[in-house]
Amino acid sequence: MVNFLCKAFLHGRRTITSSSTHELLSPRNPSSLMSLKFISSTANDNSLTVSYLINSCGLSPEAALTVSKNVRFKTLEKPESVLAFLHNHGFSKTQISEVVKKYPEVLGSDPEKTLLPKFEFFKSKGVLRPELVKVLCSHPSILHRSLENQLIPSFEILNDVFKSDEKTFLTIKRYSRLLLHDLKTCVSPNIHTLRDNGVPEPNIAAILCHSARMFFTYPDKFRESVEEVKEKGFNPSMFTFVTAVRALRAMSKLTWKKKIDVYKRWGWSEEVILMAFRRFPIVMTLSEDKIMGMMDYYVNVLGLESSFISERPELLGYSLKKRVVPRGSVARVLMSKGLVKASSLTRLFLSREKLFLERFVYRYQEEAPQLLKLYTETLDFSRQLKKE
């Protein structure tokens, strides 16, 4: 084993003869003996680390070898104390394995000085242990962040928006990467930009809770997007304002142009596209494939005018397979029998499931008794396609 490591370390892939090995390890070559001592020590440490990662942390041999490149033990006292700490704070064996695999450096932490204060902080905010464990399993390097310089200030920045520890942690659960960044340098300035432009606090809280990613951008770029949204005629007091900012931040100028070109294929002018965007900003966040698929179904299958969709852009926001096609099968029957007009299709697609069934299926059981079976079968087929 020593000879093999020595060869690998000192000579890479070059073949070494026994005589040359003997010469290298000769007492007359003190530097080689120092190298051998170093290699032997390193090999022993690595062997101990890999073995511990497999037997105590539940990692596969392959994962253990990979992880051992980032952490190495001379004794097991510290990693043992970390594992005991995690176990005592609600982590299962599987979760501990996940944490170690993602962030092996945690095994070098001091449980009392480094880990415990962070757990106590979240406990003081009313965070339940199982919920905290889920967040830390998702991004265990949060445990490496400074409590005083990052975690507490970040929590306070978010809490200043939500005015509630519970809502603050709910946002952290949804996007736990929030705690991996210095919110003072990006998120906080962007929140103030929205406030300075008259965006109501509830709208800022709602968009931050559901789309925190949009705040992770350079403040000057964020301000540019806000100004562009204002130029497009959005009212800062309306919720569509922040969803429009999110839409702009979600794509490059080139991607925006490509979306414009897709809608133009269906006869929409730039003015019509802008009107649709003002009404329902999500139309510009849809993929090109989805736009084409939805428009093709509405226009070529249901026979609706393209302008009908541009005036009701929210019809593009639903799933084609899970909602539009199943309900469209009902719409086709009802329209063919003259039971509903095209103008009724907005309610047909936008209604909640219970209202849809009452208004468009059960109501016409005598005139079209096959509707419920048709809808159910189409819906089941769509769900099956999703599974596949």
UniProtKB/TrEMBL annotation:
It comes from the Eukaryota. The keyword Transmembrane does not apply. GO terms for biological process: DNA-templated transcription termination. It holds the Pfam family mTERF. InterPro entries: MTERF, MTERF_sf. GO terms for molecular function: nucleic acid binding. Keywords: Transcription, Transcription regulation, Transcription termination, Transit peptide. Signal peptide: none annotated. Belongs to the mTERF family. This is Mitochondrial transcription termination factor family protein. It comes from Tripterygium wilfordii (Thunder God vine).
